[in-house]
Design goal:
The complex is a heterodimer of chains A (405) and B (403).
Chain A lengths: L1 H20 L14 E2 L16 E6 L4 E6 L4 E7 L7 E6 L4 E6 L2 E5 L5 E3 L8 E7 L4 E6 L4 E6 L5 E7 L2 E3 L2 E8 L5 E5 L4 E4 L1 H7 L4 E4 L8 E5 L2 E9 L2 E6 L5 E6 L4 E6 L5 E7 L2 E7 L5 E7 L4 E8 L4 E7 L19 E6 L10 E2 L6 E4 L3 E5 L6 E6 L5 E5 L5
Antiparallel strand pairs in A: 1-9, 2-3, 3-4, 5-6, 6-7, 7-8, 9-10, 10-11, 11-12, 13-14, 14-15, 15-16, 16-17, 18-19, 19-20, 20-21, 22-23, 23-24, 24-25, 26-27, 27-28, 28-29, 30-31, 31-32, 32-33
Chain B lengths: L1 H22 L22 H17 L21 H4 L3 H21 L4 E5 L3 E5 L2 E5 L1 E4 L4 E5 H6 L2 H14 L22 H19 L2 H4 L1 H5 L7 E11 L4 E2 L5 E12 L4 E16 L3 E18 L8 H4 L1 E18 L4 E20 L4 E10 L4 E2 L4 E2 L4 E11 L1
Parallel strand pairs in B: 1-5
Antiparallel strand pairs in B: 2-3, 4-5, 6-8, 6-16, 7-15, 8-9, 9-10, 10-11, 11-12, 12-13, 13-16, 14-15
Classes of the chains: A mainly beta (405), B alpha+beta (403).
Amino acid sequence: MHSKKIILISAFLLWIFSSACTPTLPVSEDEHNIGDKLANITKLQSPDGNQTHNVVVFDEVVRKIHQFDINSMKVVRTLSVPDAGETHYVLYNSRANSVIDLSLKGVNVFDSAGRLESKPIQLPARPKSAAADFDQGFLVIYDENSSVGILQLDSDGSVLKSLLLGSLLSDEVSIVAGDIIPGADLILSLSNGKVAIVDLLATLTNKTWQYRLINTSFSNISWLAPVRGKSDQILVKYQSGVGLVRISDGATLSQIDVSSYDFLKLSKLVDAHVIVKKSNQEMTLIFTEGANTLKTRTLFAQNTSILSSQLDLQNDQWRVIESKDRIEYDIFSNSLNTYRSSRSLKRTNISGLLSLPVVSLPSRSSQIILGQDFFFALYPADLGFAEHHSLITGEIKTARGFNRK
Amino acid sequence: MISVIFKRLAPVALSIMVLCGALASADSRPNFQENTFVGNGGNAGDLELQITLNQIQATIKTIDGSSVNLCECPEEYEGRAICKYLANMNDEQKKFCQKILSTKSTEVSQLIPKLKFTWVDSYMAVKQSGGDRLSDAIAQSETKNIILNLDKFLSLKPSDRVFLVSHEIFHLIKIDGEYTADDKAKGPFQDGEGGRQLLNSLGSAIAMEAFNQNIYAKQMSAILRSKNYVKNWLSLFLSGRSGSDDKSTFKMDKYTGVELEYRRDFTLSLGASIFYRSVSGDEKYFTSTTAESTEQSLGLVGTWKLSPFADPMTASGQSYFILGIGAEHLNGEHILDDTFSNFKEEDRSTSPIIRIQYFFPLNGGFWISGGAQGSWHKYEYTENNFKSNSNQIYYSLGVSYAF
């Protein structure tokens, strides 16, 4: 009897310690995607960091897509979408001035003249992420059932070819995550720990995955991102840390073990970076400056909830959207419009960790997108109301009444 | 804004009024030998005279040989003006009065439908032995025509009208073989103006008998009822129209408001009116958008009065239709507010209009009135995505006062 108790207690303690020693890191919506999680407002920066003067947003009130010219704050066009009652996401092809609308019901492409090409591809489940290289004319869409839609687009944004594939590349090997390297190929992390370099054109032609494999030292890469200016490098999150990998041979250029940390953010805006925390008081930024090594910046006494993070190394600025509210649900995703109350923008320069004054962001449930030196907000106004706030001059430009027609 | 509009429309209004005045060859008030009572109640005084004749006729028919208390003043009326002439008679004169009424009642009743009446607007001079005398009425025995001063007649109470007309009627009845003159003796009325005393007594007797027989009460509704020959009309309407045919995401289901109108009748048929109308509507759209729209209008109309019902003694007989053709200037305003922004637009329009109205009499100059108007306004609030329908129908219901 006495011995049985000891066995039970020992087994319990062994279970406790074994759990503590095995690094387990939380999983976010930003993981296990190809490209970026879809949103209903487009990014203001292209993959090379250049800022576009157009923003495309799905207006949740009138259920239409607006395209705004940021400089003039005029609505360039308003597009009526099929199945307006569904959740819609948008992508903007700046090269062709074309808008891609995605929903559970399908993918729709509006060319520069607003003509609709309806459902050139039909994904079996809700699309959740996408990777695009519009200069090369490729768009890869990933849905919740891990199906992959590949589109080849012409210079006008029209669909030349489309292909729907499953996530199984070969026997017992399936897709975990991925992204497109601008000007290069589609990179996929696989369930066997390897990385696939996919030839999209050959894949579309042969209608089956065309790829070559590389070995890395990491297993279970659940997130990977291109490194701006380094087409041969990717930043990865693996099971217990963050690594910098050379694509050509899979070599590990740098890695940081974060098994004792919790992940806060995985962001590909504008330069890929990762934020981890050790406690509520300590936060560490992990990034690369292209010198084949990872770097960190650590801040203490951070009591806010981070909604979204952008790292702009070219302009020496780290932009964080945060909220002083105690947010109970999972905010692990790098989305600044999931929670729309009490938001503020904190800008810090990377070189010296000097912060600029905090800027309060509009409430009233506005959809916001952050640019380099401004932010754009679309309010949930029946008749249409949007603002452009300059972060340099403080000037506010408005667009009103565009939903009256 | 309305004063500016009115200044622009005033010359037009004046022109219309001058035109209507020119078309009217005569005032609704009669001139001597020009406006004759024909019993249709169309002219001022016609209805009142018809009522008086009906009262006299009704009273006369109750008088026969067995009638009692004729030519007497009941105790309860002593001291009243109506009894003045009755109280002054002696017994012989009273019996003579009673005999005349009893024996001549049938003749009077037969004469009344054959009488002619003429309205004048001034007192008349009657030649008498003692010189000219001003009179409110004159009876012409050769033509059986009674001439009455309209203003004086309308100012009298019903019993005084019965007295006056009865006096004149008896001028046209031969008593003792000859007509009775005011300035000559007759029977026991031997004074220099014995004839007048007799006729006054007869008139008072009929007026008093009408009281005794409750004749006045039976005709009271016709007496009190508003008359349609009055010239000035002031109306207040509740007005509105449907907005469902307007072309807009932000249209109004309906517009409601008020309308104020003044009409002047230049003749029995023709007139002109000016009116102001303000109507508005509001609706809610989407989650938090309110839309408000207002129309303010100023209109000028030429009118034609039509009285289709024959008997002026009845309410329907006094009722009438007005058909109008004119023009209206409209100022419109449209406001959208979604709690983020407020958008206000204005536009204006001028349109021809046609109107039809119906007036039904109450008492004391008041009327119930209502009608409809068609217009062809076209106005637009382009930024608020609103375009009016090409035509509108306004409905109105309200009260009028004629004076």
